[in-house]
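Schema walk-through. Below, the input block comes first and the output block second. Nothing else is stored per chain. Lengths vary across the set, and this one has 252 residues.
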Amino acid sequence: MKIDMHCHTKEGSLDGKVPIEEYIRLLRDQGFGGMLVTDHDSYGGYRQWKNHIKGRRYEDFHVFKGVEYDTLDAGHIIVIMPENIKLRLLELRGIPVQMLIPIVHNYGGVLGPAHPCGEKFMSFMNAKAYKRNPDILNEFDFMEVFNACEPVEVNEKARKVAEEYGLVGTGGSDAHKADCVGLAYTQIPDHITCESQLIDYIKSKPSMDCGGTIYRNTTKEKMGKAKTFMTHSFWVYNKIGGWSKAIKRSSK
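--- output ---
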């Protein structure tokens, strides 16, 4: 079964332009059997599917619950939790990665860096946590080795890192717009129909077939040099988020 393991929806991501039902239709039309919803620090898109679509339409299509979590010091991390686990914490951005990893594992989940060799601050290999302690890579369960919104050389570097550390490689479109949907895939067995089964499969360390086509219409390509400002803005965004949480915790 072909699935997209990096999907942003209008209902769950502030920068998402594609409603989840449209996302499903687009993927089904391209021969996909499922998707992992990975909205930014939110399960909004997944909830829209679960509360309004599941069991009513698209019963031949599997929607898996995930999140693209904005850490304080390690960029974007894709997290998949068992279907019976609800962690509100994963919708509150800004946890340091060395706190995030044991939380996810203790509750039976798996996690791995999204676009690990991409932009500074947003990508693990170019973030503070990796530079401080590269061995953190050994604590991840998988790594995104093909991202349709990253250049070829960036994906190739990610694939080499995953191979070096023995991490399962995944592929996802990272689509925020309709014309990017379906540009990346990961092949998984047809019998996988829920998050727990997907987690168990990843833990078995399979050699997963993944790949796709590079998207040439990303916002960062259009911005050119201005993308440097965008990446530094992300750093400030997460720093402020982390400080505000620390203040709230200390006042309780």
